[in-house]
Specification:
This protein is α+β, with helices and mostly antiparallel strands and 187 residues long. It is 17% helix and 36% strand.
């Protein structure tokens, strides 16, 4: 009898855990086509780098991580680690789809972009990278060809990073993606 009561009491928790682990079905959003196209072009470049920053509540930034993408490899390191050690992996192709659906949905072009600015359009969207989700702002480059930067704001306690707000800045200058000295390419 006691085992049944305990089992019955656990059912809501098990159902909630199962719901959290099940990805949402995200439909394709045609409004996100310019965003996906810009990301595809960004990651199609032979070399690029990305720096991830923690966005603190006062708006200040703290560098968190760096990634350098070459034609064959990705070199990553934590900028907050005393060892500052690089980790290398094989570079894969970027796709607008992740395992459970499109990466971006609910894309909206932000009105009032400054025409005198060298940057391109700015979008708000929902980002999906199971099991994470975030509200995102995306700034495209001049001519809307590539992604310049983005800010992810994680609305709950399920963060991809050890902080709730992240800025990722992309640099398409090939010199920014030089292989770290002494690092071997992955087999």
């Amino acid at each position: 009898m006691e085992a049944r009561i305990i089992a019955a009491a656990l059912v809501p928790f098990l159902l909630a855990a199962g719901a959290w682990a099940t990805p949402k079905k995200i439909p394709w959003d045609p409004n996100c086509a310019p965003v996906h196209r810009a990301f595809r072009a960004t990651f199609a470049t032979e070399r690029l780098s990305a720096i991830t920053y923690e966005v603190k509540p006062d708006g200040s930034l703290k560098a968190f991580g760096e990634a350098r993408f070459t034609d064959a490899a990705v070199f990553e390191r934590s900028l907050g680690s005393p060892s500052n050690r690089w980790i290398v992996s094989r570079r894969g192709a970027w796709s607008p789809w992740e395992e459970f659906g499109p990466r971006y949905s609910g894309c909206k072009l932000v009105a009032g972009n400054d025409p005198a600015s060298r940057s391109g359009s700015r979008y708000t969207a929902d980002w999906h990278g199971f099991p994470y989700e975030a509200d995102v702002e995306i700034w495209l480059s001049e001519g809307d060809e590539t992604v310049a930067k983005l800010v992810r704001r994680y609305p709950n306690s399920n963060w991809q990073f050890p902080f709730p707000n992240a800025l990722i800045v992309y640099d398409l200058d090939p010199a920014s993606a030089a292989e770290p000295p002494g690092m071997a390419l992955p087999e």
